[in-house]
Amino acid sequence: MTDESVGSGTCGATLRGMPSSPGSTESFRDVWLITIGHTLTHWYPATFYLLLPLIGQELGLSYVQIGSILSCQAVASALSNVPGGLLADSVGRKGLLLAASLFWVGTPYLLMGLSREYWLLLGCAALVGIGNNLWHPTAIPLLAKRYPERRGLVVSIHGMGGNIGDAVAPLVVGAMLAVINWRNVMVLNVIPGVMMSCAILVLLGGLQLGIPQSPSRPSRAPRDLLRDLGRLVTNRTVVLLSTTSAFRAMTQGALLTFLPVFLAAKLGYSSTSIGGCLFAMQAAGFAAAPVAGHLSDKMGRRRIVVSSMAVSAVVLVVMALAGQSTGFVLLVAFLGLFLFAIRAVLQAWLLDATPPSMSGTSIGVMFGTQAIGTAVGPLAAGALADAYGLIAAFYFCAATIIVANMFIFLMPGPSTDETPSPAHAPVPK
């Protein structure tokens, strides 16, 4: 499997239980249902970011301990991402996997709301990290294979669901915190996730993604999956995109951890106001996500990724220089317009470079390295904040997004990364 050969495969798969026409209205309803589920998988972490300052204050946690909670979640995610991708490629009942993942993500937050021990918070965070790894390797390849010619758009719509969860959750929870305490918020938060997982199980429980079998393409044994995994992780395009995603995740993890802390500790914002700031940042991201995805289908992934990350770096530096001023808050939304819009573009670019039979695993590889970045980011930024003050965390964010962008310039030529794969390209053997 060379970089060139894996870039050609796209479709080669059919959906059982879905209409045969990918452009039909009925089939697109499933896109929106999966997108709503994705909204909730992001709702819970976005809620937790807003609650972290309150949790840290009640339990007397340091900045490093606050960062370590999210780092623990990211480490568990990193260790389970590739197995989750292999499972997604091996199990046909995609609807069942999606329902199980959503249920698994939401339930540990109920335990967090009942906990008074720091170590129990770490354990629950690890469970969230494991559960979330069933969703993305299942949902993203499912949509990409269904709509190969509109891959950037549909993956971005799915990503937009995550951005909506990231944006709306702080706004809603910030308002709830004005009435009830953070523990009650975490308990009530579980209800919509459980209800949505039941809806997915009922409406998509029979949804399957099958690859037609033939004498030249028999069903693969576990050792074949592991062999293909070895080839995948030596693919230059996959490695560079995953590394880029890891450094971008450092930026995002550190930013989402310490932006609420900065707004509360240095600017004296209330929980409601902090929720409004996070909403503005994420709302800009979900508004830009489908635009970025569509443009990447037309103009190529590289241009969109490079320009967005370059602007993000500049904005982060200006935010750090602005310090405790109104200019800092005004830049938050502008940052979201670029930083959060390219997640799905990176995912679509990765799927352009991998065969359909390994698409879930390739997403697992990307999210695994991304989880490492998410684990390192809050810890490193927390250590810098303890040593040099909170503003140092934002300089760290700017540095990591610059490094992420540098890896894009090491990518192979435009044959596989500049344009999406054709809808009926042959599947690599």
The helix count comes to 17
Cα-to-Cα separation, first versus last residue: 8 Å
CATH topology: Growth Hormone, Chain: A
Mean pLDDT, nearest integer? 76
Number of domains: 1
What's the main sheet like? 2 strands, antiparallel
CATH homologous superfamily descriptor: MFS general substrate transporter like domains
Q: From the helix content, strand content and strand pairing, which structural class follows?
A: mainly alpha
- Inertia-based shape: globular
Q: What is the CATH C level class, in words?
A: Mainly Alpha
Strand elements, count: 2
Helix content: over 70%
Could you tell me the strand content as a percent range? under 5%
Q: Explain this structure to me?
A:
This protein is mainly α. It has helices at 3-6, 25-59, 63-90, 94-114, 118-131, 135-146, 151-177, 182-204, 222-232, 236-265, 271-299, 301-322, 326-339, 343-352, 359-388, 391-408, 414-417; strands at residues 14-16, 208-210. Helices cover 77% and strands 1% of the residues. The chain has a single domain (23-209, 235-417), classed as Up-down Bundle (Growth Hormone, Chain: A). The chain has a two-stranded antiparallel ribbon with strand order 1-2. The longest helix is centred in the N-terminal third of the chain and has 35 residues, at 25-59. Helix 10 (236-265) packs parallel to helix 15 and helix 15 (359-388) runs antiparallel to helix 16 (391-408).
